[in-house]
Amino acid sequence: MLERVAVGFDGSAPSRRASDYAVEVAGRFAARLTLLIVRPDRGPPVDPRLENLVPGSEDGRPIAGVIEEVCDQARASGARSVEVVYLTGDAVEEIVRWARRHPQDLLVVGSRGLSPGRRVLLGSVSAGLVARASCPVLVVRGPHVGRPVPRAGKGRSVGGAARVRT
Q: Are 3 and 29 in contact (CB under 8 A)?
C-alpha cells in the first residue's frame, strides 16, 4: 500500500517528531523513505558538505549527524531504502514541485503549532502542503501543541478517549 514516504526535515523538534513517524511507517511497510531538506534561497549556493558542519539542530549538533541518525534509524526499522534530497527555495513550493516529479504515497511534516495570527503573518509550511500536495499529508503535532494538557481524573477522558472503569 505505501511504497514511497517523504518527510520534510530541518533538524527542529517538530521535524524530528515527523521523521520518527515517517521512519516507523517506512519500516512497517518496507517503503522507500526520502528526507527532504529545504534551504532558503539566500545568495550564492553553499557547498552542502560545509553547511552540514554548522550546528543546525536545536541541541546544537551539526545537521549532518542528525540526518545520518535518522537514516540509520530508518534502515534499522526495515525501510527498503533511504535517500536525502536537498532543495533550495520556499519550502512549500519546492516540496510540492519535487513531489510532482517524484510521486509519493505519503508526505509527513511537523507542525510548529503557530497561533492563528502568526500563521497569517508567517505562513505555515504544513498548511501549505496540506492544501497543495498531490498526495496525502500527515501533519505530526507535538505534545500539547496549541491546547491545554489534558488531565485524567475520576470519570474523565484523556485525549478524547472514553475512560473505562474496571
A: yes
Query: 0.90 cut: is pTM over it?
Result: no
Q: What is the 3-state secondary structure (H, E, C) of the chain?
A: CCCEEEEECCCCHHHHHHHHHHHHHHHHCCCEEEEEEEECCCCCCCCHHHHCCCECCCCCCEHHHHHHHHHHHHHHHCCCEEEEEEEECCHHHHHHHHHHHCCCCEEEEECCCCCHHHHHHHCCHHHHHHHHCCCCEEEECCCCCCCCCCCCCCCCCECCECCCCC
Task: Evaluate whether 27 touches 77 at the Cβ level (below 8 Å).
Answer: yes
Bridge partners, residue 35, by sequence: 7, 84
- Whether the CB-CB separation of 103 and 4 falls below 8 Å is answered with yes
Q: What's the mean pLDDT in 30-38?
A: 96
Q: Which domains does the chain have, with CATH numbers?
A: 4-140 (3.40.50.620)
Alpha carbon distance 153, 129 (integer Å): 38
Grid look-up 505519503 returns 106
**Residue 146 clears pLDDT 70, i.e. is over it:** no
